[in-house]
Amino acid sequence: MTQIGSVWGGGPGDGYEALARRFRPIFQRIREGAVERELSRTLPHEPIAWLKEARFGALRVPRADGGSGATLPELFNLLIELSEADSNVTQALRAHFGFAEDIVNSRSPARRARWLPRLLDGETTGSAWTETGQAKQAAFATTVTRAADRASVTGSKYYTTGSLFADWIDIGASGEDGQSLSAVVSRHAPGVNVVDDWDGFGQILTASGTTVFAEAPVAPEDVVVDEDRFRYSAAFYQLVHLATLAGIGRAAANDVAKAVGERRRSYTNAPAPLPSQDAQVLQVVGRVRGAAYSAGAIVLKAAEALQRAFDQRFAGDEAAEEQANAIAELEVAQAQTVVSNLILDAVTLLFDALGASATRRAAAFDRYWRNARTLSSHNPRIYKDRIVGDFAVNGTPPPYQWRIGEA
């Protein structure tokens, strides 16, 4: 069924349905095993392999280079659909799509020539940026060391989402002179150890745990100065979370509607003999669905801002590019608290349409709240309204990047 036929609104552009049809059978296969994976804590190696085989990770590679040439609104709409199937899979691929976006933004012909074929071959990239313990905001403890024509990376990272499933790992590090760098290391290189020790209560299948690098070899050409990365990256990574939340909302809306339609038991104080005829229950179902619809619409609107920032990247007008980046960051910040509130409310409210049986572990409805709450804890939303307000009142531009650690 088309997105319009499902009453989630039109897709982004006339070509979206043709693009989506390539992947919807895979999304359906992923959806069919989502509850079982959750209950048995089976990591989604197989679903991610299906997507890699279908070259889902090459969506943003330009058509001229052999890719799908998807626009950013098309990408984010597909991520909503994937998240409707299983939000763990989307988050596990979040770092990959950020890395791919950096490659298609690159002005370096050599870097593009090195990485675009890998994307087209289905290879994916995980991330290793956050450090724990006594990490500093000013610099990474993880370091890149150069010697002659060789380089290596040493350090320990946490929240290395997706790295366990990936072919490569994108690492935030410091150079020997303290300069902020990124380095890409083979997931299977000597000295790389990815540990599945993520112990969060939500998004439990994303393998967002520890990765240790012990003099892991890195090609010198895969060491990039942090300032060279695409400028709307913070907005991009945050919008992936918002798309994931919107997909969770759709899945919750579909599940609660199905459960209400199948339910035969009701209460003596209910206004109708069946829940499917109960106006109060139907109102709850409608509110959940309305929240999911609104979240998706907001995500697509914000994705348009990112597309404008990308379009300015190669337009040759530095001031216009800077303005487009700032606007993209602000639009995503404006969306963040609204989308997270919509979905957190929806995945709590859905239980009001059902009986106590909805809390059974086998139903796995609790995963929607756990996953939404976990995603909403990233990139603290409590700061976003202040940043937006500071711009609205004082014209203060938004910060593009942030780090966590001791000040």
Write up this protein:
This protein has 407 residues and is an alpha+beta fold. The protein folds into three domains: 16-125, Orthogonal Bundle (Butyryl-Coa Dehydrogenase, subunit A, domain 1); 128-227, Butyryl-CoA Dehydrogenase, subunit A, domain 2 (Beta Barrel); 233-394, Up-down Bundle (Butyryl-CoA Dehydrogenase, subunit A, domain 3). The chain is 48% helix and 12% strand. It contains twelve helices and eight strands. It has helices at 16-21, 24-32, 34-40, 45-53, 72-85, 87-105, 109-120, 233-262, 279-313, 318-349, 366-375, 384-394; strands at residues 125-128, 143-147, 150-157, 168-174, 180-186, 192-195, 210-218, 223-225. A four-stranded mixed sheet has the order 1-4-5-8, with helices on one face. The protein has a four-stranded antiparallel sheet with strand order 2-3-7-6, with no helix packed on it. A hairpin with a 5-residue loop joins strand 4 (168-174) and strand 5. Helix 5 runs antiparallel to helix 9 (279-313) and helix 8 runs parallel beside helix 10. It is globular and about 80 Å long. The model has no long low-confidence stretch (mean pLDDT 94).
Task: Quickly describe the structure.
Keywords: Oxidoreductase. By secondary structure, this protein is an alpha+beta fold. The protein has helices at 16-21, 24-32, 34-40, 45-53, 72-85, 87-105, 109-120, 233-262, 279-313, 318-349, 366-375, 384-394, and strands spanning 125-128, 143-147, 150-157, 168-174, 180-186, 192-195, 210-218, 223-225.
